[in-house]
């Protein structure tokens, strides 16, 4: 119990350092016994959720995905994020999905050690799927425009999945 609480506090501390008190309201408030208030009504507790990043907005420039992640609430281990975006045409800008290695690179949108998860053509149709397999913070960002989409387009967010079952 004590260690779980400590971990919750750590999560809050580290994520709040970003000015991004994100994604774990279910966890934090669950400890206080208000869990039912914070759970997304359609989220199942029994199996992994498939979550479209941005909901009906999909993955595009000019939408704040940090706010989306906060609103979405808790993410669980083995949840699957789905990134949907159109392949670039002459009239639309490309997007992509990168994983940044740490908080520092995330804050600065520094892609020098980033890993490309999905290219500009991989977001079509059913979208690009990424499973949150590990208990770690995942720093996602669009890598297009030399950091512009990440810095100014709102196309970055952090999720830190918790084990299913710890929230209640
Ligand atoms: C949640 O489920 C209800 C009924 O099962 C459905 O009408 C509603 O659209 C769903 N909401 C979301 C956000 O998926
Ligand atoms: C995009 O532009 C190129 C050359 O300017 C042209 O050949 C191509 O047909 C255009 N594609 C679309 C989808 O408009
Ligand atoms: C980006 O990160 C690399 C190391 O990962 C560092 O060498 C470089 O100076 C950073 N660039 C900026 C603009 O901070
Ligand atoms: C997105 O929202 C967060 C939290 O309010 C804010 O700190 C950040 O500056 C916003 N990003 C953009 C690109 O407006
Ligand atoms: Cu983009």
From TrEMBL:
Superkingdom of this protein's organism: Eukaryota
Residues in the signal sequence: 1-23
Record keyword Signal present: yes
A matching Pfam family: Cu_bind_like
SUPFAM superfamilies xrefs: Cupredoxins
The Phytocyanin domain, residue ranges: 49-163
The keyword Signal is assigned to this record: yes
Gene Ontology molecular function: any one: electron transfer activity
Alphabetically ordered keywords of this record: Signal
InterPro entries (alphabetical): Cupredoxin (IPR008972), Phytocyanin_dom (IPR003245)
Protein name: Phytocyanin domain-containing protein
Organism of origin: Ziziphus jujuba var. spinosa
């Amino acid at each position: 119990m004590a260690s779980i609480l400590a971990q919750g506090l750590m999560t809050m501390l580290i994520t709040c350092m970003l000015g991004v008190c994100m994604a774990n309201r279910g966890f934090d408030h669950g400890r206080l016994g208000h869990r039912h208030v914070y759970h997304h009504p359609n989220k199942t507790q029994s199996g992994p959720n498939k979550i479209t990043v941005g909901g009906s907005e999909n993955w595009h420039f000019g939408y704040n995905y940090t706010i989306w992640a906060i609103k979405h609430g808790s993410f669980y281990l083995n949840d699957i994020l789905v990134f949907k975006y159109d392949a670039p045409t002459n009239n639309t800008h490309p997007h992509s999905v990168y994983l940044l290695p740490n908080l520092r690179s995330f804050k600065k949108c520094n892609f020098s050690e980033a890993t490309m998860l999905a290219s500009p053509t991989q977001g079509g149709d059913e979208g690009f799927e990424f499973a949150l397999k590990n208990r770690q913070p995942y720093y996602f960002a669009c890598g297009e425009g030399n950091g512009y989409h990440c810095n100014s387009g709102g196309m970055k967010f952090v999720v830190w999945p918790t084990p299913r079952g710890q929230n209640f």
